[in-house]
Each structure stands twice: as structure tokens, then as C-alpha cells.
Design a protein that fits this description.
Oligomer: single chain
Strand order of the largest sheet: 4-5-6-9-8-7
Largest sheet: 6 strands, antiparallel
Structural class: alpha+beta
CATH superfamily of the largest domain: Chorismate lyase-like
Number of domains: 2
């Protein structure tokens, strides 16, 4: 193990032991850390770089290195979809009490800041046309959602949802971003159109983030994003919604539970 890795391990262990609390400033790179570890400034900076990439510390230019406050973890299980379906036909009062983000984070509605941007003039490209089984250039509604914890600056994810415009135009409220966040989410919105979901297919891949994604999600070097592709099928066999969700790999836990038939 290289010396900078041993130093990183020691600093990490001291933070975990409570020697420094979230928000505390670490000792100076020089002379404090270089003297304590009897090493060069470059080696100390390498160690701190490892910890910054892990999200353990933040380097603030001109001020020093600080123990990073843990970001709220998002635990997303495949059971959330049945939970959403069970809520879709509840009263509006009941649906307003909580939502999918609250379900995944344990937070309350009042803890969240939500934003929605709609584009009702988007045309289906080849990929979306093939997924929806519609002609190329069919009019879609693209919805982009960002939700963040009120005590944090970055959203939990960036979610882009696509619906066929002609399928949903019968309920004008679904075209209005000011109606968001919608109590009961997409499954309740589809319920207003007498559409019931039969199954949801999800595919998860990972890749390095773009520059824009790193900035918006607050990602450090070395942190990947998870790309969740969600395709919702109705009981009559149609694809009725497609979503692409970009999730930060350092604060997202994906949990898949599969019930097995007993022998």
C-alpha cells in the first residue's frame, strides 16, 4: 500500500471515530499534516484527494479541507412500484401525505424542494419511437423532475419522463407543470385516464458523468452515475411511459427483491 493510501486510511478512521465531526476543518496540509505524517505536501494532497473522491472531505479553495456532511442516502427497491400502485386509487388527501421520494429517503414532504419542467412539443426520436411502438416524430410530453433535500444543494437525481401527447391530452392538468408534484405520481395520473399498469421493466447501467451532471449532482472525481431506464406497460399491452433517471452512484442504493415459488 502506498504511503498516501495509508494516510488516507488513517484520516478516514479518525473521522469515523469522531475525532472530527461533519463540517469541521481538518488540520492544515502544511505544517500540521505533513509534520504529523512525516511526509511531503504532495503525498498529503494525494491522500486528501482520495478522501475527496470518496466524498469524505471537501476542499474549499482558500479555506482548507473540511469533513463533508453525509448526503441523504436514497434506497430504491423494486417494491416501490406496487407501493405506488396501491396508492394510485386512494383519496387525494391520503396521496398528499407522502410520495415516492419520501418512500426512498425516509424524509417528509416538508423536507423536500421540488421542480418540474415540461416540454409538450418534443418529437419521438428513433429510440423512443421503437420503445413506444409509435411512428417516428410522434408528439410527446417530456417532463424533467429534480427533487432535493431542503438542507442540501444538489438533487437526488435527474428524472426525465416521456408520455405520448395524444394519450394524455384528455386530462389538461397532466400538461401543466404547476400541478406538480402530483399526489400519487405517474400511476395516479394514468389512473385519471383509466390506464392501469401491468408491469414495469427497469434496466440499470453505469457510466462516468458528463461535466453538466457532475456539477448539478455535486459529484467528485471518480464517482459514476447510474442510469435507470424505466418502461411502464399497461394492462392492455401498451408502453405508456418511459423514464430515464440519472442517479449519483455515491448516494444511491438499488435493492432488488425476488420472490421465489416454493417447491
Amino acid at each position: 500500500m502506498a504511503k498516501y493510501e495509508r494516510i488516507a486510511d488513517d484520516i478516514r478512521a479518525r473521522i469515523q471515530a469522531g475525532e472530527w465531526q461533519p463540517g469541521d476543518r481538518l488540520p492544515t496540509e502544511t505544517p500540521d499534516l505533513t509534520t504529523h505524517y512525516k511526509t511531503s505536501l504532495n503525498t498529503v494532497r494525494q491522500a486528501l484527494g482520495v478522501l475527496a473522491a470518496e466524498g469524505v472531505v471537501d476542499k474549499v479553495h482558500g479555506r482548507g479541507n473540511f469533513v463533508r456532511k453525509p448526503r441523504k442516502l436514497v434506497v430504491r427497491t423494486n417494491e416501490r412500484h406496487q407501493w405506488e400502485k396501491d396508492r394510485a386509487r386512494q383519496s387525494e388527501e391520503a396521496r398528499r401525505q407522502t410520495g415516492a421520494t419520501e418512500h426512498d429517503t425516509g424524509l417528509a414532504v416538508s423536507d423536500l424542494v421540488f421542480s418540474a419542467v415540461f416540454d409538450d412539443e418534443m418529437l419521438a426520436d428513433e429510440e423512443l419511437a421503437e420503445t413506444f411502438q409509435i411512428p417516428l416524430g410522434t408528439r410527446l410530453l417530456e417532463r424533467t423532475y429534480r427533487t432535493r433535500y431542503r438542507e442540501e444543494d444538489e438533487p437526488f437525481n435527474i428524472a426525465r419522463s416521456y408520455l405520448v401527447y395524444d394519450m394524455i391530452k384528455g386530462n389538461p392538468d397532466l400538461l401543466d407543470p404547476t400541478k406538480e408534484p402530483w399526489p400519487g405520481g405517474t400511476q395516479n395520473q394514468l389512473h385519471t385516464l383509466d390506464i392501469e399498469l401491468d408491469r414495469i421493466e427497469e434496466r440499470v447501467t453505469a457510466r462516468p458523468p458528463t461535466v453538466e451532471e457532475s456539477e448539478e449532482l455535486g459529484l467528485k472525481a471518480g464517482v459514476s452515475v447510474l442510469i435507470l431506464r424505466k418502461v411502464s406497460h399497461s394492462t392492455d399491452g401498451r408502453v405508456v411511459e418511459v423514464s430515464n433517471v440519472t442517479l449519483p452512484g455515491n448516494r444511491t442504493e438499488m435493492v432488488f427483491m425476488t420472490s421465489l415459488t416454493r417447491w
